[in-house]
């Protein structure tokens, strides 16, 4: 994974915030862990880094640091935590096996717990966490901006910020992001110990891109078009489309940097933006999509996995198959212009020592 180096660095720094002495417990939490194949990868990466650190202390100081880890996996209450719990046993055995064969790594006990709740609320006790990780979660807003959900303003049949979105609506999306992100920073600041770290990864925009430009707006604009296509077919009501908006905002690198600085709770240890292909299976070079149909199918699956519950709640289950078929066909056409890249922001934040 592209962001593992940042995670390794933050784990090593966060270890320094452990109280010295025997029997230290490091507390880590992954926010928006989901229940897919990647959920426990983060735990493995953190544990491998801690294991290597413990081994290094043993090699260098002839006495091994004694560390235990409490790892919280957080997501919204609707997440399939049971699926995660069922895969834990196998995961623990794999970790122990790895530690046994890997000479450079000590086995460190890790206690994993599910933590249902929104990251836009308090979820852990004051000053109890050494490391927060969150990947592809902070793009989600806590809610649709009120003046959009109550109909004061409308978004001209866009479901996210599109080329025809009025400026006042763009501002509503941005303001909702600002409120959510500031709230998130102040909540995590309370929960982190002094010297604690956060590694946050989320889709965003390049510096020069306006909110209706870039790789995030592009994929949602095509989904708006697919929904619109279903209106004359009688599958989607026009009023339903007008009142549907995504609780989403892709901030620019500058917006994120400015908010963190303004907020003044964290030091930015590192911030950068990289481009990742929306089609995770396409690792070809250059900008040309070699097989637009199969690439579009792959992207449609990712987008569907992310927003199926929202679409179902608003439009009903019956449109799903047709909608995503039309979406994939429209995306395939769109990909003839070039690859759909998603700008991703990764930032390491440190709660400075008092
Ligand atoms: C695209 S998945 C990312 C999964 C995983 N972290 C990864 O990088 O592959 C986004 C996850 O964020 C979760 N999520 C969205 N809003 C959230 C919130 N307010 N609090 C906690 N989790 C949230 C969703 O339920 C979903 O599981």
From TrEMBL:
Lineage of producing organism: Eukaryota, Viridiplantae, Streptophyta, Embryophyta, Tracheophyta
Pfam families: Methyltransf_7
Signal peptide region: none
Keyword presence, Metal-binding: yes
Gene Ontology MF annotations: metal ion binding; methyltransferase activity
Domain of life: Eukaryota
Keywords: Magnesium, Metal-binding
Record bears the keyword Glycosyltransferase: no
Stated name of the protein: Uncharacterized protein
Gene3D superfamilies: Methyltransferase, alpha-helical capping domain, Vaccinia Virus protein VP39
Family to which this protein belongs: Belongs to the methyltransferase superfamily. Type-7 methyltransferase family. SABATH subfamily.
């Amino acid at each position: 994974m592209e962001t593992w180096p940042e995670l390794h660095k933050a784990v090593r720094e966060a270890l320094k915030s452990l109280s010295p002495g025997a029997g230290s417990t490091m507390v880590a939490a992954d926010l928006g862990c989901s229940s897919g194949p990647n959920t426990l990868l983060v735990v493995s990466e953190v544990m491998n880094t801690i294991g290597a650190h413990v081994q290094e202390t043993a090699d260098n100081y002839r006495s091994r640091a004694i560390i235990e880890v409490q790892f919280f996996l957080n997501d919204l209450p609707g997440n399939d935590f049971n699926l995660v719990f069922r895969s834990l046993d196998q995961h623990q055995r794999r970790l122990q096996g790895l530690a046994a064969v890997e000479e450079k790594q000590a086995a460190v006990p890790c206690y994993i717990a599910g933590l249902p709740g929104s990251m836009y609320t308090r979820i852990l006790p004051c000053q109890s966490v050494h490391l927060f990780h969150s990947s592809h979660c902070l793009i989600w807003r806590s809610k649709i901006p009120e003046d959009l959900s109550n109909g004061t303003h409308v978004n001209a049949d866009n479901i996210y910020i599109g080329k025809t979105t009025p400026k006042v609506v763009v501002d509503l999306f941005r303001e909702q992001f600002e409120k959510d992100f500031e709230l998130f920073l102040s909540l995590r600041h309370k929960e982190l110990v002094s010297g604690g770290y956060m590694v946050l990864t989320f889709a965003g925009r390049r510096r020069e891109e306006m909110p209706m430009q870039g790789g995030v707006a592009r994929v949602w604009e095509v989904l708006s078009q697919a929904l619109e296509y279903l209106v004359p077919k009688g599958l989607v009501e026009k009023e339903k489309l007008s009142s549907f908006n995504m609780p989403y905002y892709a901030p620019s690198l500058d917006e994120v940097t400015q908010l963190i600085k303004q907020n003044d709770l964290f030091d930015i240890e590192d911030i950068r933006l990289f481009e990742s292909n929306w089609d995770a299976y396409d690792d070809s070079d250059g900008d040309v999509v070699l097989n637009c149909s199969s690439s579009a199918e792959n992207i449609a699956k990712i987008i569907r996995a992310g927003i199926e519950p929202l679409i179902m709640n608003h439009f009903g289950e019956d449109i799903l198959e047709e909608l995503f078929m039309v979406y994939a066909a429209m995306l395939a056409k769109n990909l003839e212009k070039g690859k759909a890249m998603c700008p991703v922001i990764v930032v390491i934040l440190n709660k400075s020592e008092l």
